[in-house]
Backbone:
């Protein structure tokens, strides 16, 4: 996931027992015909060894994105050759078309037998952030296996998904599987920087007139042991992402010698401006997004009095928000956040600089737009000597449907239940960071971010940090999940509710 803080940070919500919906009753009608021809997700010992060795090989190719302009393109090319080698069936099947997009990204088009079913898209990325060796228990590009886990940069973000997608498809094809519903697999090469690969794939599909039933990308996880005293595992599916803005604040004053200084300098003016900005919180946004619905639905899971508080969110709004404001992570769920990230001014001890600059990084709540946040910021700064330059910005992503009729969401839930029967709670969340899937809003309203992997609290630090690893069992389950999901997606029926909620 891009930009260091990962989607899973949305789990912070759960640390404080909020932001969840319990939805164990809904599901998809089972299809008798489909059951009969279903291929069980059982893999031989040889297949299981081959699948983990394939992942190790992928980790060993250092597909590093160093900066916005710089990547190891040799490794990106090598990765393309590698997938040809390890997934020969995928690459040689007549109803699968493979294209290289934007030089290094990959798009697979899997033609289903029933053109009346709307296609869907599974996506992942194989570029990784740099991994300096210090602090690692094993070299970060070794792919070494230790105590039942494979170590290395990209084992969770996000080569595991890249490999699991192709691996599951390879195994299905070997078993002579022919999908009914068409689908696409898009593998991006620069998610950690600009995402041009995914943008190009999106443009290409749009130019072909494709409309997608849904998209699944990285983002959410299965979370265990995160809420104190709450022992049940929870599957978190990201249904939205916060927006983002990098804003440059600049003050120009005349420069001069420090022996006869003016009353105010560019540094002083800008420092006061950013200080006002830091001390003024953006407004709380309680009603929009998934929060309120989710609090009500989660209420039953808790004893008195938490259940009463959660089931009456409007009544207890002040209490709930005060609680959430205290923790930076839950605070990020109820409002737009801002962080002062760069401050530049001055070059010499006895010269008053003419220019001072500061960069502020905003993460925009789904209840606001870039424009609104910019206006609010100008009002808070309230000094016309400060100039504002928007460097990059995009609005929050729309909230994808997660009701009984939302095909993508319900297919994920159904697959979670069959692969992880112990997981009875699925919740929709908002990613605090961004993924490549944000480029696909023109193609579908259903964009879901979910990795079928049990994330331990310690794993959080390993994203873009040291000792990133995936358990061998966890990776097998991920392959199994995709194997099941592809088959589940062949349903031609609308999702239905088995049990009506009050
Ligand atoms: C780039 O990747 C290649 C392998 O494809 C590797 O041999 C080389 O050391 C990498 N370069 C850097 C700077 O990491
Ligand atoms: C402020 O100073 C910078 C750097 O010298 C310059 O590029 C910019 O045009 C100036 N802006 C104004 C409004 O004077
Ligand atoms: C989850 O659901 C399954 C099947 O309905 C049930 O057997 C199991 O006890 C449930 N587990 C929990 C923790 O509620
Ligand atoms: C979505 O479609 C509009 C209208 O065709 C186009 O201007 C825009 O660039 C598209 N956005 C993306 C992200 O592809």
Residues:
């Amino acid at each position: 996931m891009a930009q260091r803080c990962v989607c899973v940070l949305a789990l912070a919500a759960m640390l404080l027992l909020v932001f969840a919906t319990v939805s164990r009753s809904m599901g998809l009608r089972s299809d008798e015909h489909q059951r009969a021809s279903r291929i069980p997700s059982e893999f031989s010992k040889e297949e299981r060894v081959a699948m983990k060795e394939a992942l190790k090989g992928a980790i060993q190719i250092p597909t590093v994105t160093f900066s916005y302009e710089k990547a190891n393109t040799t490794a990106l090319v090598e990765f393309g050759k590698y997938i040809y080698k390890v997934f020969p069936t995928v690459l040689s099947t007549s109803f699968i078309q493979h294209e290289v997009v934007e030089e290094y990204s990959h798009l697979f088009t899997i033609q289903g037998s029933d053109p009346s079913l709307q296609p869907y898209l599974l996506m992942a990325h194989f570029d990784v952030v740099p991994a300096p060796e210090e602090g690692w228990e094993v070299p970060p590009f070794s792919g070494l296996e230790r105590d039942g886990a494979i170590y290395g940069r990209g084992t969770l973000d996000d080569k595991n998904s890249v490999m699991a997608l192709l691996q599951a498809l390879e195994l299905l094809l070997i078993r002579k599987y022919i999908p009914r519903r068409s689908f696409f697999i898009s593998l991006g090469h620069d998610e950690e920087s600009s995402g041009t690969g995914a943008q190009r794939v999106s443009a290409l599909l749009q130019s072909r007139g494709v409309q997608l039933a849904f998209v699944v990308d990285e983002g959410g996880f299965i979370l265990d042991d995160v809420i104190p005293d709450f022992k049940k595992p929870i599957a978190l599916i990201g249904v939205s992402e916060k927006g983002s803005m990098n804003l440059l604040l600049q003050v120009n004053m005349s420069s001069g010698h420090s022996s006869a200084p003016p009353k105010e300098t560019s540094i002083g003016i800008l420092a006061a401006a950013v200080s006002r900005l830091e001390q003024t919180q953006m407004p709380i946004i309680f009603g929009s997004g998934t929060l309120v619905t989710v609090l009500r639905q989660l209420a039953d899971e808790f004893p008195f009095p938490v259940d009463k508080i959660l089931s009456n969110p409007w009544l207890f709004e002040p209490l709930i928000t005060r609680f959430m404001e205290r923790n930076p992570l839950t605070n990020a769920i109820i409002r737009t956040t801002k962080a002062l990230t760069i401050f530049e001014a001055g070059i010499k001890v006895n010269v008053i600089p003419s220019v001072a600059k500061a960069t502020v990084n905003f993460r925009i709540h789904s209840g606001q737009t870039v424009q609104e946040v910019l206006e609010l910021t100008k009002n808070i700064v309230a000094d016309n000597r400060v100039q504002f330059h928007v460097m990059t910005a995009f609005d929050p992503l729309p909230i994808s449907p997660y009701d009984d009729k939302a095909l993508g969401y319900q297919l994920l839930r159904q697959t979670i239940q069959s692969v992880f029967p112990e997981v009875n709670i699925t919740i929709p969340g908002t990613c605090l960071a961004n993924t490549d899937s944000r480029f696909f809003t023109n193609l579908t309203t259903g964009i879901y971010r979910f990795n079928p992997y049990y994330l331990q609290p310690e794993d959080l630090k390993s994203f873009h940090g040291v000792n990133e690893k995936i358990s061998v069992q966890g990776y097998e389950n991920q392959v199994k999940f995709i194997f099941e999901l592809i088959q589940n997606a062949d349903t031609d029926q609308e999702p239905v509710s088995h049990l009506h909620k009050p």
User: Anything to note?
Assistant: The longest helix spans residues 472-488. Residues 61-62, 64, 72, 74-75, 78 surround 2-acetamido-2-deoxy-beta-D-glucopyranose (ligand 1) (CB under 6 Å).
